[in-house]
Write a structure and sequence with these properties.
The chain is α+β, with helices and mostly antiparallel strands. It contains 10 helices and 8 strands. It has 3 domains: 3-167, no CATH class; 203-265, SH3 type barrels (Roll), CATH 2.30.30; 270-394, Alpha-Beta Plaits. Helix content is 61%, strand content 13%. The protein has a 5-stranded antiparallel beta sheet. It is elongated and about 135 Å long.
Length: 394
């Protein structure tokens, strides 16, 4: 204790001196942390320019707040023991000696601060790149750009989370090394735990890897209509681990990505409304095909339906001979998810056109054939006469 300190704090009991010393240490630590935060905020303002909106203020306050916390913890921990010794409480070898404090702050303290700032800058740069990519596609109007925007958001969130985890883990390990904490046992333990988790969670790892490539290759997106392992529905959610479908009845089906054997996307890029049109054998196929094409042309003239159609109707001709009808196959190329709307309107118009042209649409008919009815009539007559005799006798 210095002579000045001995005159000021002489005679204080330990229960008073310890809080006083810690208070002094924390006050000094807060002052230094505040100066460091102001310096970081000033530097970022000069680099990024003046930002007055809420997003800009948040982007400046977040790193300054982080620097304030890190510096306060480091300086407070370094000054705690010397400050307690300054007020007359013996601390032994705990903490840093006053003569070594400045050296520690200049070397290890600055390294820790630099590690924290560098980690934040890397995370921030990745976040800005992802945000800029999403911002550029947010106002997209074309179908292709909208699909690219959804894919960019999905991959961007995944990339941001992966970078945050990796950078944070590396930064923590580097800070522990600067604090002279042996991290080798921790790394060895982490390796053993990772190995155990790898053996015990093979299915989970398989799901995550399959989900990553599912998203990266743009095989399916939220809102698509798909069939997975024979079950169809609308894709409601897509994560690294699972994909969720809701079928027409409202039932939710959850599939782990690693268990997907077959995936059929019915709404990727474009769709087709396919028709198997049956007419009676007596009808002229050429006349029927002509009516089908006319109905397809009418759809292209309808302002409510035409925007959903990407190409005129294709009539392939007679596709098969059924038990009671000739099957003519046709299709219309449509926007994704619009094939069912176009198909319903086409069938409605085609039915009216067939009725107007007198074209028969066959339907199942049944003819009943009875055998020899003589025996049946004789038995009925006998039963009638018997009933009449019984009535007269009665």
């Amino acid at each position: 204790m210095t002579p000045l300190a001995s005159q000021i704090f002489e005679g204080l009991p330990p229960w008073t001196a310890v809080p006083l010393g810690l208070g002094l240490a924390f006050v000094v630590a807060y002052a230094i942390a505040e100066l460091a935060a102001r310096a970081v905020r000033f530097a970022l303002t000069r680099v990024l320019g003046s930002q007055q909106d809420a997003a800009g203020l948040t982007s400046l306050l977040r790193p300054a707040r982080l620097v304030r916390i890190v510096v306060f913890v480091i300086v407070g921990a370094a000054l705690a023991a010397p400050a307690i010794g300054l007020v007359g409480v013996e601390t032994g070898n705990v903490g840093l000696a006053p003569e070594g404090l400045l050296n520690w702050l200049v070397v290890s303290g600055l390294r820790i601060l630099l590690i924290g700032l560098l980690a934040y800058v890397i995370i921030r740069i990745v976040g800005l790149v992802v945000a800029r990519l999403e911002e550029g596609m947010r106002d997209a109007t074309t179908l292709d750009m909208l699909e690219r925007a959804k894919r960019a958001r999905t991959i961007g969130n995944l990339l941001r989370n992966v970078v945050v985890v990796i950078v944070s883990v590396v930064a923590v390990l580097m800070v522990l090394a600067q604090l002279d904490i042996n991290i080798m046992p921790a790394l060895a333990a982490a390796g053993v735990v990772s190995l155990a988790i790898g053996f015990g969670a093979q299915t989970l790892v398989k799901d995550i890897i399959a989900g990553f490539f599912l998203i990266l290759e743009n095989q399916v997106r939220v809102g698509d209509v798909a069939a997975i392992n024979g079950t169809g529905g609308v894709v409601e959610a897509l994560t690294l681990r699972t994909i969720v479908l809701r079928d027409l009845a409202g039932t939710v089906h959850v599939f782990p990505n690693g268990s997907i054997n077959t995936l059929s996307n019915m709404t990727k890029d474009f769709s087709y409304a396919v028709f198997d049109i049956g007419v009676a054998y007596k009808e002229d196929p050429d006349a029927v095909i002509r009516v089908i094409k006319e109905v397809g042309e009418e759809l292209l003239q309808d302002l409510a339906v035409a925007p959903k159609i990407l190409a005129p109707i294709e009539v392939f001709g007679i596709d098969a001979f059924g038990p009671s009808e000739i099957l003519i196959k046709a299709r219309i190329k449509t926007l994704p998810l619009r094939q069912w709307d176009v198909a319903r309107e086409f069938r409605r118009r085609l039915k009216k056109a067939f009725d107007a042209q007198g074209i028969e649409i066959p339907f199942p008919q049944r003819t009943l054939h009875f055998g020899d009815a003589t025996r049946l009539l004789t038995e009925l007559q006998r039963q009638t006469r018997k009933s009449a005799v019984d009535t007269e006798q009665g």
